[in-house]
Amino acid sequence: MNESKCQDLGLLFLRVSGALFLLWVHGLPKLLSYNEQLKLIEDPFHLGASATLMLAIFAEVLCPLLIIAGVLVRLACLPILCVLLIALLVVHPEWTLFEAQFGWLLLIIFTTVLISGPGRLVLPQRFS
């Protein structure tokens, strides 16, 4: 296998595994337990629990699905990075590196995808 194909497989693995992890651990629980999450979600910018939760669901459900499909990948990384930075720097600034390691690793993954792009293993252009 040539180097270009290996890079494309690596980018596919990175974007799909990172997106699935975010979707499974954070996105789906918010979507499937919406009413319970309304009572739990922090609202650092005073937008209201419902608006804040909908923005989080957008970033943690819709954006990962776009990234998995390879559609608007760089654009889809931006809301995810915003949510992660807000969580780490605004909502939980007291967290140690140990407590925040999952967030920082996701930040590294999605920043890498933002910089590198999706690679060539994406849906055909007519769907992108």
Automatic annotation (TrEMBL):
It is a multi-pass membrane protein. Keywords: Cell membrane, Membrane, Transmembrane, Transmembrane helix. Belongs to the DoxX family. InterPro entries: DoxX, DoxX-like_oxidoreductase. This is DoxX family protein. It is found in: Cell membrane. The chain crosses the membrane at residues 9-27, 47-68, 75-92, 104-123.
